[in-house]
Amino acid sequence: MFEVKTIAVLGAGQMGGGIAQVAAVAGLDVLVYDSFPGAAEKCQSTHRKSLGKFVEKGKLSQAEMDAALGRVRHVTSLDALAGADWVVEAVVEDARVKKELFSKLSSMLKREDIALATNTSSISITEIAASAGASAGRVVGMHFFNPVPLMALVEVIPAMQTSKEIVERTVALATRLGKTPLKANDRAGFVSNRVLMPMINEAFYALMEGVAEAEAIDGIMKLGCNFPMGPLRLADFIGLDTCVHIMNVLADGLNNDRYRACPLLKQLVTAGRLGDKSGRGVYEYPGK
Ligand code: NAD
After folding, report:
1. Domains of the chain, each with CATH number or no CATH
2. Would you say the CB of residue 216 lies under 6 angstroms from ligand 1?
3. What is the model's pTM?
């Protein structure tokens, strides 16, 4: 019977690091590859901090934390991923970079049962699968949410080429990682961003048109819809540049100008106000 023992994670950033962590906690051996020299150290330190919080809250024992940390190995070349029986790609959201990687992975990992999953939040899975040539049937969207250790959902998105078996295995693996897999088709934005991003964009229109102050827009949506945070605060957390990028993907992919990014959102990005990561977006984040 097919069982994933070793998972390869490409990209040790926010998402790749999170995916590596949940896989290690679930008992898988994890190989992490990132092309940026300092990425491994940063990822290890994030793992220690994040797992440490689980220990503090009594959700994990110190021994379980140490065992999970011991299961993660950072490697410095793609060739070192050869022993993996599942791949999740979580590198930068750049179609050219991802396609180049999938083309290499397809010729490197030849076993038919090794899935090549991508965590892309907006690039067409069918397009990424096409770059994997003969391995296109093994490519699947496995869309985790941020922060991965806390968020329950994995959106499972088959490409037009994905085999039924790989989809079933993706659902099984997501479940084994303690997540809830839900399937969506490969259309721009899948379900999550197709529904979420236009709402965020609309919140920027409301702000731009003076419908209410930012705090009031967020407060109304939090209290009125029972959201954990308002759409403008969430946009800062996601990154305003990422929001513009996803709106562009929706507008182009769905061929409809109603998905164009709000002028205020674009202007904030031009001014370098990208949200939490730049210290200022809609709101200010001193010290970040
Ligand atoms: P990030 O910038 O935190 O991490 C990306 C990592 O990829 C970096 O460490 C970088 O060094 C590495 N990288 C770049 N090119 C590489 C290459 N050729 N080979 C190996 N490593 C390479 O980004 P992130 O937020 O973790 O996003 C990663 C992916 O996950 C993107 O596709 C993004 O769309 C998707 N995603 C992000 C979120 C989110 O909220 N951040 C949510 C869901 C999905």
Report:
1. 6-183 (3.40.50.720), 193-278 (1.10.1040.10)
2. no
3. 0.93
